[in-house]
Design goal:
About 80% of the residues lie in helices and about 0% in strands. The chain is an all-alpha fold and about 80 residues long. The relative contact order is 0.15.
C-alpha cells in the first residue's frame, strides 16, 4: 500500500513538472491533457484518503497522510 502510494506520488509530481514545462511554452493542447491527468491522479489520492477515513483506521490514515506529505495535523 505504501509502495503503491509512493509510485502514485512520483507520477503525480512528474506530471506536475511536465505540466509546468508545457505551460511555460504555451502548448495548450498538451497542457490541458496533462492537467486533466494531474486532476485524475489527485482525485484518486483523495478517494484513497476517504476510504481510509471511512474505515476508521486512524493509524493507517495517519501513515498515508504523512506519506502524502500533507502532514499529521489532520488527525
Amino acid at each position: 500500500m505504501i509502495f503503491n502510494i509512493k509510485i502514485k506520488i512520483s507520477i503525480y509530481l512528474l506530471l506536475y513538472y511536465i505540466h509546468k514545462y508545457l505551460y511555460k511554452y504555451n502548448n495548450l493542447i498538451f497542457n490541458l491533457y496533462y492537467f486533466y491527468i494531474f486532476l485524475k491522479i489527485f482525485t484518486l489520492e483523495l478517494k484513497i484518503m476517504m476510504q481510509l477515513f471511512k474505515s476508521k483506521n486512524l493509524q493507517r490514515l495517519g501513515l498515508c497522510v504523512s506519506k502524502l506529505g500533507i502532514g499529521e495535523a489532520l488527525i
